[in-house]
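pinging the channel bc i need a second pair of eyes. not urgent but kinda urgent?? the chain im working w is below, pasted from the shared doc
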Amino acid sequence: MFTFQRRIGLSVAAGLLVCAAWAPEAMGQFGTKFSTSNPGFFPFYQVAPGLTLQQAALNIATMGRAYSQFPPWAAGFAPNAALGYGPLFPQGAPGSTQALMNSASANPALTRLWTGGGYANPYLYGGYGGGGYGGGGYPAALTTGGGYPSYGGYEASAYGGYGAYTDPLSGYLRGSAEVVNAQGRFKVSMRQADLLKEQRVRERIDNRKRMFDEYLYEKKHTPTWAQLQAEQHENNVLHWVGPNVPPGEIWSGTALNALMDEADQLQLKGVSGPDIPLDAKVLQNINVGPKGTGGGSGGLIKQLPENGTLRWPLAFRTEPFKTEVQRDVDKINDNLATAVADAKNEHTDASVMAELRDARERLAEKLKENSPDLPMDQYIDARRFLDNLGGAIRLLKESNAGKYLGGDLAATGKTVKDLVKYMKGHGLEFKPAVDGQENEYVSLHHALAAYDIGARQQQMVAEGNRGARKPRPDEDD
């Protein structure tokens, strides 16, 4: 019998080798790492040196087909029914005499054990020809549970049932199939990972599109610098035409210049505005000068008496501050009248202008040092006086200073409309007021505010009429 099984095993092995040689594809045996027919899954994993997982799966399938051509008992093992136990033989247990007797009917290889032919199991009841050695064996232990009392009978096994029996070949093939299934699950996982990757790319593109749409939205609805400037100008005009404008904004000329710019823009749009008359005496006390912070003002020079000596604020005439600044005060009094006379004659003395500038700067430093010892109102008057003095010095340095001092370049116009045209046409702007001119500045502010309010009303009426007029049929849309 053993010779027959050995022959069967060799035949199976030879069949497997032949089938493996006929395999249509053996990539793993040649160490190929990449596949052109199945891109995306490389390198192919190897279950042994030179044996890829795909080749192993093919070998397993070939082995299964080869083994399926032989009965189980031909390879030396059989299922439960062939061994005499299992559901078909409930009275038999593995290894019992009854199970071996039952198996004779299902496994021809065991029939000779009970017919007296071949080699018998000496440990079974009967031995050779059913008798064992001298009819011995261990019949009590095998059949009745006798013999050694500590072991008991095998038929009444203390280990209970053994469950389903799995032959080694089936277990090997099942385990190999699990490896192939794992490869399939791996490929599915790889494809799912590819899908997740593509989904991530798609979401990133979608997020970029949303960001770009948000950028376009913000760009479309974000006001430009010109729009912000126009809005701020609109707010300023609404503030300066109101009744609660701070006096400082009027006296400094800030409110007057803003209202003049607004009136000029309305006139450029074709809005004439109401006719607001102006008093010539009021305009005589309005200081004008070149546009820009560097442009000077002749307001302080207008107040010079015949002797050319300025009327200094109280802080410069009170001890002990008077003693500290008297030298610079005298220098300014001595040189200012000379500088004015030179400007009217269209002549400028550089040394005189330098004396005026240096003396004024020293007075500003002294005022700053003594500010803690001066009352607040005196300090403010002195600071304002020095600012006006600086504007006068800058004006005297201008080449056309004589025209400002002679009245050729001054606030002129019978109405607000005329004043705006003259000021804009000559590049002039309103300069700060000096002591005694505050009322005239307030009066001019009221006139400019009234003009702007009336001009805006005219503009609104004109725009409303244009919007309400329906186009004729022959007009273009």
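so The longest strand covers residues 46-48. and The chain has 17 helices and four strands. — does that match what u expected or am i reading it wrong
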